Amino acid sequence: MAGALERPERTPRPAAGRGGPRRRPAAKPPPLAYTSPIDLLAGPAQAEPLLDELVRLGTVVRLTNPSQWDAVVTAILRRSVPAGQAARKHGAFFAAYGRGFRTEAGEFALVPSPRTVLVLSDEQFDAVGAAVDRLALRAVAEAYLDRGGQWTIRGPACLAKKLAEVPYLGSWAAAVAAADVTGDFSVFPHGDPAVRAGAGRVLRDGLVAEDGFEEQWHRWAPTRAQLHALTLFTLTWAGEEQAAATPPAAP
Name one GO biological process term (predicted). Predict the structure, then answer.
């Protein structure tokens, strides 16, 4: 018919199945990183007791952190405090200001978003024991919103170096976060007390003084693959030993 307006074509809606509307595809799980004990090559005689113990773990499988933001926040909250205190501070910060979920394993909270961190007051940081971390958390939130997308294309060492440029973050937290995201523990701070403590439980008198420990660690693992494996296996062994020694929570 002349002069008639044509109706725009409508995009058809997906047909609902018998069970109702179609579900969204499940989110892709983060990758698993596999490290074989084969990478724990023979070291000096001084390291043999440790290597013999670590090999018993078999292949270590680790879930890499899919979120750089979560990894950096976690590294900041863990700085300069014992593991137990760091875990409590981490849980309190996430529970107070992150999005919470109820799961079969109990309540679970996500990391507070960068924008949430930027509007927290000094008193709110202090309320969860994170007063000393507020400058670093605010600085990394601003950096993440400004240029966080640039960090994803970098390798482990480059990522650690780039993160260390963020004010108040520091090279230690940057290296911990880079290892968490990439699964490459050759960039982990090898002088970390957790690494030394794990090795010390096996070797006892076989370690040098704390100031020379990192240099000794690198002599025992001269290649990147060996350094990654030795560090990851030591942290895993220490974590399993601690879990075995921790009494189960009351029902």
Answer: DNA repair
